[in-house]
Amino acid sequence: MTTTVRNVVRVAPPPAGPSWRGRLRAPAVFVLVAVLALVVAPLLLEPFRLGLLAKYLCFGIVALGIGLAWGQGGMLTLGQGVFFGLGGYAMGMYLKLHDAGGDLPDFMVWSGVEKLPALWVPFENPVFAVAFAVIGPVVLAVLLGSLVFRQRVRGAYFAILTQALAAATVILLVGQQGLTGGTNGLTNFFDLFGQDLAADGTQRGLYIVVAAVLGVLYLVAWQLVRSRFGRLLIAIRDGEDRVRFLGYNPATVKTVTFAVSAGMAGLAGALFVPVVGIISPALLGVVPSLELVVAVAVGGRFSLAGAVLGAVVMGYAKTSFSEQFADGWLYLQGALFILVMTLAPKGIFGLAATARDFVVSRRPRTGRPLMSTGTADIGGPLIEAQEPRA
Amino acid sequence: MRNSAWRIGAAIAVLATGLAACGGEPSTTTGGTAAASGGGDTIKVGLLHSLSGTMAISEVTVRDAELLAVEEINKAGGVLGKQLVPVAEDGASDWPTFAEKATKLIAQDKVATVFGGWTSASRKAMLPVFEKRKALLWYPVQYEGLESSPYIFYTGATTNQQIVPGLDYLKEKGKKKIFLVGSDYVFPRTANKIIKAYAAANGMQVLGEEYTPLGHTEYSTLVNKVVAAKPDAVFNTLNGDSNVAFFKQLKSAGVTAEQMPVMSVSVAEEEVKGIGVDNIAGHLVAWNYYQTTENPANAKFVEAFKAKYGADRVTSDPMEAGYNAVYLWAEAVKKAGTTEVEAVKKAAGGIALERPEGTVTIDGENQHMYKTARIGVIEPDGQIKEVWNSGKPIKPDPYLKTYSWAGGLT
Q: Tell me: the pLDDT tens digits for B134-161?
């Protein structure tokens, strides 16, 4: 109880802050990871592996959004795939039209469509497509959020609602074969802004773009969490009614956060399509949406870095397990999830933080940095009470 | 704190074990990268089917048949004096995964060819990978046609070797009014487009066309619609589990195979087991091969398959097509004298082999097979009895160019 309130009140940095070494540690780690991702990885990895890493990083962007909405804001969203898909289809539609060069896209021909549907026409413009990939999900999230959060729908009800949205979207996409490519989705792309998508150079460039976008979005999200807005968000997670009694409107804060996470998922979808070369309903249904939430849980949902780490680790685990044990890899992936959740309920990142605290507790120090890594016991029981167990 | 120390230790140990497991070299790739180019004494081939997810139940059987072919070829001395090493990957019933694993097999394992896929969606997802990387895919399942990729060999039937003969049979039997039932994806939709064009040109009447999502299992409404329309026959392009619910519902609505036969194009021996033979006996299917097809090559295939995988296993058309694919590729490699893709493609045209379904010849132009169409009726013992065949292998025509009624389709 007191911890929650103290968390809200302590907005200004404590006067006796951590030493300069402590303050520089986080930026130093960020720069180190950025150098590893942007310079070392492209040099060391062969093109195929680099492409896979780019894919994991795309999921990392979605996970960052989930970390923000769920880890910081307590909104368990099981339908991020919908926003990811909106972005992905926007990009896919542009690529398809660009490749068709004035003709109808191939799948429309074999689906018996004779004229380009009106819905597709604006996507001939790449600027519109990319803008829509972000704005579309944001608008949808604002609509959904302002309806749902104002009605104080939360916890399991919100989770079920988002999941139902994902399921419905898949049915809609599959049913409209002539418009969306049906189960096949959109695939067989050749060219991105004049670059041959099959070329190793293009793929390397795409990787750099994905990694850079992830880095920038991470900084944005990190700033957001550190700001007054972020404090308010965490306060809402830990005690929404109390924040309301203090005179804030939780619905607005939650809607904005949800919209930001949706925008991130949309952008990730738009980047995913040229990297992987396909977008299909299978990528945005209930299962992939859940997989991402699981990844965030494994990485550590209370920390943004943990969320991203989780997506990359789970993506990598999926690839290597399935390559090693083609017949039974799903069991291994499940076992990894269960083990991490039982041994480290706050995820890999939470585990690392606990380890640090363990060491720190041996040599007591003042002015522990105030970060919501979930290391401290802030509001633990409250979260348990509010949220469904995954 | 003691507790958390223990947890940290345990979790780190678990993660380390996990990572170590990932880090090890896959045992299947011991042939080294030189193998594919013909340098080593082995040739790697990729097998890419869904081993998990909804499609696993069907695709695993094809993978089993392909492994049998690889084993037999190896026992007989291999290809170009080299043993084949299969590298299996899991497509996980997920189309993007098929594309990823295809890339992995080509780029990393450097396999000489890939045998794989089942659903059209998985083939469409893999197609750009194979075309861009100029690698070979052998696709073993009947499909909706209207495709002819230079880097894919299609060993299953195209529409003029399965659906069109199925319609010819219904027409011959005087079934003039038909009802179309299908799963909601590209194969049933395209197949039904073709069926409607055929019906219009042949004085048949399509009374209705209904689609249900893949995996759908509630068929009372649909069956009521079918019964109310009173068709002479139903043309069924449902896939997977849906067939179980559909045939059960049809039976409980009192429909018999005598008054309203259902012609299915995605129900083979394996599926009959799942549907329950009581529910489906007497109905019709259209394929190119049945376990009962009489042929020395088939007797050998069925015997070898049962010996390897168990006496209760059945063989089916897609399994046979997968089994053939390995032999056809091996033959093309022998003829070309190398596993190099362009040479193999060039050598493949015209190759004819005696296979369990009869003579199979590769059409060098569209890379489909000449196949004999066979209509069968499901027997009470779960086997399929052939009631009609085309007499000789039919030339593949994926775009139905030789059929005047199909002019508006492509």
A: 999 999 999 999 899 999 999 999 999 9
Residue among A175, A316, A323 minimizing CB distance to B26: A323
Tell me the residue range of the domain where B48 lies. 30-157+289-372
Q: If you ran DSSP here, which 8-state letter would residue B359 be given?
A: E
Judge if B49 and B180 occupy the same domain: no
Please choose, from the candidates B273, B295, B356, B292, the residue with its C-alpha nearest in 3D space to the C-alpha of residue B321.
B356
Please indicate, yes or no, whether residues B214 and B306 belong to a single structural domain of this protein.
no
Task: Considering only the beta carbons, identify the residue of A177, A317, A326 that sits closest to B88.
Answer: A326
A182 touching B, CB under 8 A? Answer: yes
- Does the CB of A45 have a partner CB in chain B at under 8 Å? no
Q: Contact A336/B127, CB-based, under 8 Å?
A: no
B254 & B391 share domain: yes
Would you say A371 and A302 are in contact if contact means Cβ atoms under 8 Å apart?
Answer: no
How many whole angstroms separate alpha carbon B389 and alpha carbon B280?
Answer: 21
Q: Tens of pLDDT along B370-388? A: 999 999 999 999 999 999 9
pLDDT (tens digit per residue) in A144-176:
999 999 988 888 999 999 999 999 999 899 888
Q: Is B7 on the interface with A (CB under 8 A)?
A: yes
> Same domain, yes or no, for B210 and B349?
no
The Cα–Cα gap between A342 and A330 comes to 18
Residues B268, B392 share a domain = yes
Q: Do residues B44 and B29 touch, judged by C-beta distance below 8 A?
A: yes
Which 204-263 residues of chain A touch chain B by CB within 8 A?
none
Cβ–Cβ below 8 Å for A110 and B190: yes
Whether B38 and B149 share a structural domain? yes
Residues B316 and B345 in one domain: yes
Residue-wise pLDDT tens digits, B73-89: 999 999 999 999 999 99
Cα–Cα distance measured from residue B399 to residue B380, given in angstroms and rounded to the nearest whole number? 37
Q: Any chain B CB within 8 A of the CB of A334?
A: no
Chain B residue with Cα closest to A283? B96
Q: How confident is the model at residue B267 (pLDDT cuts 50, 70, 90)?
A: very high
B293 and B251 fall within a common domain: no
**Measured distance CA(B309)–CA(B316) in Å, rounded:** 14
Work out how many domains chain B is built from and give that number: 2
ipTM higher than 0.85? no
Could you tell me if residue B40 is inside a domain?
Answer: yes
Q: Is residue B183 part of a domain?
A: yes
